[in-house]
Amino acid sequence: MTATGFGPSLAGRRDEEFAEFVSTRSGWLRKVAYLLTGDWHRADDLAQATVTKLYVRWHRLGGVENVDGYARQTLVNSFLAERRSPWARVLLGRGENGGDGPPPVVPQPDLDAVLDLRRALAELPPRQRATVVLRYFCDLTVEQTAETLGCTPGTVKSQTARGLDALRRVLTPDSEPTATGGGTS
């Protein structure tokens, strides 16, 4: 260690801590990114961009109480910034596979209901999708979600309500009767 205290051992320790964080949280970050983007390739890119941003700031995160929350906020902010970018309109407007040939074949061991939910989630506007994912997948409170998104709790509540209403409209079959009971025995 050098006289200033910033020798290789401190940097090495920081890198080890970061490597451990990434190895334990990368699967979780990728899942959240998938729920936001609806595409595994874009989720991988988003998770990687988040990990890169975290690495650049890792030496300053020593005082952060909730590193998971910071990582989640970085992920969501990166997603929303990507969606606002004019470049996203060009790339995302061409479809998930960029418009080149048939969509990629990916084995889907999931249940039909899960696939329906994913499809419906992908149809939500980015801000509503982020709110629903943070509230119900990440299990954050209204206040935690507001802090992550940089908005008021009222905005979180309204975005969540609108998102859930949209999901219900898409997921509830029109042929289902609305009245309950009253059958013959």
TrEMBL record:
CDD domains: Sigma70_r4. Keywords: DNA-binding, Sigma factor, Transcription, Transcription regulation. Residues 25-85 form the RNA polymerase sigma-70 region domain. One of its GO terms (molecular function) is sigma factor activity. It comes from the Bacteria. It holds the Pfam family Sigma70_r2. Residues 116-167 form the RNA polymerase sigma factor 70 region 4 type domain. The keyword Transcription applies. GO terms for biological process: DNA-templated transcription initiation. NCBIfam families: SigE-fam_strep, sigma70-ECF. Belongs to the sigma-70 factor family. ECF subfamily. This is RNA polymerase sigma-70 factor, sigma-E family. It comes from Streptacidiphilus jiangxiensis.
